Every structure is written in C-alpha cells, then in structure tokens.
Amino acid sequence: MKKLTIFTAILLSIVCIMTSVYAAESFNITQRIEKDEFNKNEEVKVEFDLSSMQVGEGIISIGATLEYDKDSLTVISTEGQNGWKMTYNDAEGIMLIEHDNLIKDNGPLFKVTFKIKENSKPSVTIKLKDITAAGAGDEISVVNVQKTITIKTEDNNGNGGNNPGDNNNGNNNNNGSSNNGSNNNGGSSNNNGSNNNSNGSNSSNIGNNKPGSTTDGNKNNGVKIPQAGENNTVFFVLIGAATVSAIIFFVKAKMTSKSQK
User: Fold this and answer.
1) 25-158+188-229 CATH
2) Which residue has the higher pLDDT, 90 or 213?
3) Quick one: which of 147, 157, 177, 255 is 20 to 30 A from 239 by CA?
4) What pTM was computed for the model?
5) How much is the mean pLDDT over the chain?
6) Per residue in 152-177, pLDDT tens?
7) In the prediction, which pLDDT does 224 show?
8) Three-state SS letters, the chain
C-alpha cells in the first residue's frame, strides 16, 4: 500500500509540473479608427494595440497579414509603436513586428495610414488575419480583427445634387422658380489632398516564409516568427524518463510482494 501511494504521488507531481509549465498563453489585438465615416481622398489612420496579455515571460515577435480592398484604399505609411519595429510587404499584405525585449504588457503595437481612392466603394473592411506570435514559450495564435468604414458619396456630401427650387431642363417647377431649358450641374468635387508620409516604416519582400499555424480556420501564409527560446525537448525527455522509472518501480514492487506471499 505504501509503494502504491509513492507511485501515485510521483504521477501527480508530473501532471502538476506539466500543467504549470504549459498553461495556455494568449492575448488579443484591438483595432482603433478615429471615426466610422470618411470622405473620398481622405486619410484613414488605423491603430493596433496589444490587449488581454497572458503570455508568461512575454512575446518578442508577431506575424500577420493585412487585408483590405486595394481598389478603394492605398497604404501610404506603416509605423511600429512603443518600441516595436515593423516590416511590411504591401504586395502580399504580410507584416513582421519585432521587439528587442520580451513584452508582456498591454500597449500600442503599430499604425497603418491609408488614403481613400476617388473610385472607392461605399463600404470598406480593414482586416488583420493569420496572427501568430512567438516568445519564450510556444507559438501563440490570435483571433482575427477587423473594422468596416463607410465612404461618403457625392450625394451624401450634398455635392452633385440639384439645388432646391431649381428646374432642370424645364421639367420641374419647385418653389416657384423655373429655369427653362437650363441644365443645373451643381456637382462639385472636394479633393482634400494629402501628403504621403512614411513614418519610419521599412518595406521589404518577406512573403517567402510561412509560419505553420492557423487562426480561425485561416491558413497562415505569413512570415516565419523568430523564437526567443528553444523547444522544451529536454523537459519532455526528463518527464518521460521519470514516468517510465515510476512504472518499473511499481511493477517490481508488485512482483516482490507476490514472491513474498
């Protein structure tokens, strides 16, 4: 009975060690846009932050893919924040964000500035997907984040509509005024030009590496995330050896007990 108690204690110790060392690590990325509605040719600044950080010793690199409608938006700058350094390949939408130290606190991560094209669609979604992170432990997969913005049309801006009380081509008589045979083209276009500022961003072709994880059912075709530590192979070998030793000890104890009887 005493030998069985020792064996049970050994197995429970192994289970406790594995549970404490390999507790699930997780965090989220939140997406912030200053407003939901924009004009054509206007800039859109999208900021991404780390939140709900439960990452043990911390993370040191993050890979992801930025997805957006390239017929409606164009990226004019990318910028790592709070000590994070960002490399972005716009052709593939792939990005790599790295830090010099292990980070385990919430805070700003990076910012992307878009410009809305003249022929933009009325509604555009900006999505960050295939998000994976590496740190002292195993690779962490993060859920996708996205936001949809509305692009004002000329009708929404009051440009291009007919002025009240005007009559176009002599067909309507509103508020007692009539423009016989005249064509009222009240449309105007506001072109809020902006400079393309690239704030400390680096662009390079990083689309050839593929991290081997998926998030929300999406295949991760992003970059390979650098690891901050080696896999715990030795740890598993030691656990296996301890387990085998405990089993052998228990079997021998049972055989000795039978022989004594």
Assistant:
1) 2.60.40.680
2) 90
3) 255
4) 0.57
5) 74
6) 987 554 444 444 444 444 444 444 44
7) 54
8) CHHHHHHHHHHHHHHHHHHHHCCCCEEEEEEEECCCEECCCCEEEEEEEEEEEECCCCEEEEEEEEECCCCCEEEEEEEECCCCEEEEECCCCEEEEEEEEEECCCEEEEEEEEEECCCCCCEEEEEEEEEEEEECCCCEEECCEEEEEEECCHHHHCCCCCCCCCCCCCCCCECCECCCCCCCCCCCCCCCCCCCCCCCCEECCCCCCCCCCEECCEECCCCCCCCCCCCCHHHHHHHHHHHHHHHHHHHHHHHHHHHHC
